[in-house]
Specification:
The chain has 130 residues and is mainly beta. 0% of the residues lie in helices and 48% in strands.
Amino acid sequence: MLELTMATVSGADAGATAGMTMAEVPSEPGAALRVGRDGSVCRLVTPEDWLFVSRVHLEFVCGPDGTWHLTWLRGSQTEPASEVRLTVGEHTQPLAYGATVPLPHGGSGEIVVHDRTAPRSVNVGFYHEA
């Protein structure tokens, strides 16, 4: 099972948890969860006017062995308007535009999408059951 919680944070709202949304899906091969502005394909949807987030920005896909993978999908622009960082435990790493990384079994962490032009972020916490 992969569980996600998402909060959108803007300037003065830093630290607030109002507006938090959740999604979960069993760890079955091919299962997917998406985060972005397009509510027709994303389970977790950001504000439509937050253009630093693509229509479909992040994708979580379960592989054949039950391991979940996170991909920062490439959008329509050559250069992204945001930065994405993945934190697991004490380790934080930037995620490259278009890159895919595995999520740890039985682990939890956070993916943060930072707007490069304003103090806004999309914070997605995850828990991947072992």
